[in-house]
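Let us work through a complete example step by step.
Step 1: write down the sequence.
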Amino acid sequence: MKKDKKPAKDQSKTPTQPDNQPSVTDSDQQPGHSPKNQPVQPEKSNQPDSSEQPSWPFNGSVSQVDTDAIDPDLVDVNSNLIDTHKTVSVQRVVPSKKTDTRRNAKSKTDVGGSGRAAKVKKKPPQPVLDDDVEHLTIPEELGILALRNAVVFPGTVIPLAIGRPRSQRLLSEVMGEGPSRPGEKILGVITQKDATVDYPGYNDLYKVGSVVTVLKQIKQSDGQKSYVVHGLVRFRIVEWLSDKPYLKARIQVIASETPATKATSALMTSVRHAAIRMVELSPNIPEEVMVILQNIDDPGALADFLAANINIAAEKKQELLETADIPERLRKLSVALAEQIELLEMSAKIQHQVSKSIDKTQREYFLQEQLKAIQSELGQTDQKSAEIAELLVKIETAKMPESIHAEALRELDRLKQIPTMSPEFSVLRNYIEWLCELPWAVSTQDKLNINSARRILNADHYDLVKIKKRILEFLAVRKLNPKGRSPILCFAGPPGVGKTSLGRSIARSMGRKFIRISLGGIRDEADIRGHRRTYIGALPGRVMQELRKCGSNNPVFMLDELDKIGQDFRGDPASALLEVLDPEQNYSFTDHFIDQPFDLSRVMFIGTANYMGTVPPALRDRMEVLELPGYTAAEKFTIAEKYLVPRQLTENGLAPDKFNIKPDALQVLIDSYTREAGVRELERQIAAVCRAYAVEIASNKRKSATVSARHLEKILGPARYESELALRTATPGVATGLAYTPVGGEILFVESTLMAGSGKLILTGQLGDVMKESAQAALSVIKSDAIRKKRTTKYQAELSRILANDEIMSKQDIHIHVPAGAVPKDGPSAGLAIYTSLASLFLDKSVRPEIAMTGEVTLRGLVLPIGGVKEKVLAARRAGIETVVLPERNRKDLIDLPKEVQRQMKFEFVRKVDKILEIALK
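Step 2: predict the structure and record it as tokens.
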């Protein structure tokens, strides 16, 4: 290498290995990783070249760099951009126009592939000339330095940290530190195909690289050396010469000259604009880069500068390095820049959105802090502090038990630490408010005056002697033992008998608040016990909600429709009610939301149900059941006169002295327009009559009105119900039975007939399994009478004679039907009516129309007792039945019947079926 000037003597000199020392392979020392230092295009400067630092001409520009700030790690090379946080001084000297910058010496033979190539004719050294600076001569044979994940482009400056012994040997000779040859400071760098190979061979390297010159050597504190190199020209491997003590090859310089054309200028302009856009989108690139982009006039230099600095894979950079044609290189670079711009724009958009959101949050926080400071100066408090203070006052005045008071204060301390914007803040505040608003120690004073309570109950309800007696007993016990536990009463009866209104009367007689919740259709256990606070929108159960509303811990609490509670995958609400209604447990009832025990022992719970059969046994066991079977016609008449008519007059705005319903009209309403156990439908009919005359009075068509029975058909239409007894029982084979339903008792007709067939028994009318078995048993009893030797009645003797004819049973089918086939029917009390119907059919005698019967029949002819006597007898009374046949063992149940019914109706008791025929048949 020939030099006009010598470089400044600021390089660290260290001895190198002698030539006769054995070579050390790459595997002897593993390289580390360098920081992300990035090559930078030298800046343009109008200052002349400094004499202290060397410069070499290349494509009309000379690059030099101050390396004092460079601190690379021990790796071969890293091709990313120099860290913009470090200061790198760059000068660029513009050569004169007469400078010959061509480096186009070509070899006649271009050898590809790996290994040593054939001999080629040597050419003289290839000079790089510039009139204004020193002259460099690139030799035909060069030492080759293998790089990892990095590509060096001509015209760029890059730091190298040398770690492999083979590379160290090469740099020592290049810097003139070895005894074999003077230092020329020129070598070739080629990128490895696989960066993980520690000792690359010929096949592990690309064929095209860059000739570089060493600008400066730096000695690290750990003894390692790093170098700053400047890319000069591209070269291609012609022939590998050796790989020890370092890689050495014969090269061919690749010329990159392109005539100035409009297409090239257009490509250059497009690439420059794309690069400027990329710089604008990259926040960490210094402003000097924009100046460099604006001042690079050579298309090849611009392409190399951008290729070295753009963030693309090493394979793509190698492809750009191997592209000698400058327009083609610019096109490839344009595609890579477009991809980078697209990524940067997307990243900038995302960053803008995130920044906007963060700025909004920071602004709100800053304003809140300012508001706090202003309020503090004015002696005011912020909203959160005011809420905390208000909650503290509520906690102190809530009269909670000591353990719950401590829990509330602990939760309040947690609330102070939570930001108001957090979702947990509102959940915790809601929980503390619930704790403060529950009536832990708030109760009403009981009015335990027995006589006053009796007057209130008699004023609100007619009859119900047994229910009123039990309520007065409860009040008496509470008066004598105020701390005793309240029993759980349950009113069972059909709709409209006054179960709910009876609960209100109890609350009024005791001076307590009244709560009612309907349990019909509830399927979620959380409706009773509440939701846990871990769920969004969690709330306490209905029990705690109603106690909070009424503001008392000892109300009369009515649980309506206990028999209509559902059950599914969300739990069993009936099971959740066990703790509520059990006097042994409800003193420490725990709601899932409140999560603290609440004393329910002072609450008087009253349950209601239409039918106790569907109430779970465990729940029923915790309650005292009081039956409300229904009302007789006389009781309905009295209730209508005393309660229903006055109430409807008030609700419809009619004065008692100007509107009157005569007793005969009330009686017709009861007999012909309603058929129910309660009085709800009767009140609706009375309200319809009142509304009809309210229209005429409001329109001044009349001033007063008196309603009699003959007016009802005009107002309400024809009578809805009429007696079918005479019509139904006028034919043999029809008997009247009695049935029990959840809405009260009702009469049931049983019809039988004979037809030609094969002796089959046909049952229709949606009969259940129990009723089908009762029909089979009744038929078997009749057949057994035919062969019985001892006959006690004349009807049995006649039945025996008739059934002795085998053709009756073998050639005829018996069909038993219970009308109203759309209504399912079942129960163990229809056997007596079916037996009477079959006997009437075979004897061809009609059953008395004024008689009804109920009871179960055994194969021995015994009549078993049944339940629901009161409901069935009242249903017979409503239907106009005069005589009721009951099992002998049900005689004791007559005591529950109203005295009026006992006086007006006749009761027959049977022990065996042979007696029923004498009573029922005409």
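Step 3: interpret the result. Confidence is low (pLDDT under 50) at residues 1-134.
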